[in-house]
Amino acid sequence: MKRHDVTAGPASSGPASGGIEHTCVSRRSFLKGGSVAGGAIMLSGVPGMEGKVLAAQVVRYPRMFIAKLSALTTDQPLKFKYPDDGRNSGSLLVKLGERAGGGLGPDRDVVAFNALCTHQGGPMGGTYKPEHKILGPCPFHQSTFDLTRHGMIVSGHATESLPQVLLELEGDDIYAVGMIGLIYGRHDNLKG
Ligand code: FES
Questions:
Q1: Is the peptide bond before 137 cis (omega within 30 degrees of 0)?
Q2: Residue 41 and residue 23: Cα distance in Å, rounded?
Q3: Which end of the chain is flanked by fewer CB atoms within 10 Å, N or C?
Q4: What is the position in ligand 1's atom list of the atom closest to the CA of 139?
Q5: Euclidean distance between CA atoms 125 and 70, whole angstroms
């Protein structure tokens, strides 16, 4: 299990060696066991936690090309599936236009999340609110999630943050490489 110790700040990562920029952030630990690799990551973008380094588990999945950074338009989410085409894998990539925890790119503003509500699986793919940088309210019970702070809950019935997709930037290419959190309805993110 590989561990990444990173200092906290408003954004989660900096350029890595080899021309690849990584993001890996979380505010909790999860996904014990399984066959995938994990790592310790930083907690950032959470009020009151700046400057602190926490350990959490990052689950690495197959690297998958998602989009060109230069093709993204601020506040226009791009839908994709990750980590596979299986059940509940619908996700959103969005350039928020403001610095975000786990954000990728020169402005640290590109993030991605699974788009199912962590409460009871409400479909949230079409609920992005650019004025507040949130996903929601969930059509089932009104939960909302802050995309600038690792998908943490703003309001509603959910008790878990949205699963955040780990991203890497290589040149202009954005890749998904893992997941922080468990996709709703799956007992393992890779077992739909
Ligand atoms: S399923 Fe989203 S708030 Fe209940």
A1: yes
A2: 9
A3: N
A4: 2
A5: 22
Q: For ligand 1, is residue 72 a contact (CB within 6 Å)?
A: no
pLDDT in tens, 118-168: 999 999 999 999 999 999 999 999 999 999 999 999 999 999 999 999 999
Span 50-73, pLDDT tens digits: 554 444 456 678 899 999 999 999
Residues in the chain, how many? Answer: 192
Q: Does domain 17-180 have CATH number 2.102.10.10?
A: yes
Q: Where are the domains of the chain?
A: 17-180
Buried b (16+ CB within 10 A) or exposed e, 173-183: ebbbbbbbbbb
Evaluate: CB of 155 within 6 angstroms of ligand 1.
no
* 156 CA: nearest ligand 1 atom: 3
- Inter-residue contact 141 to 122 (CB < 8 Å): yes
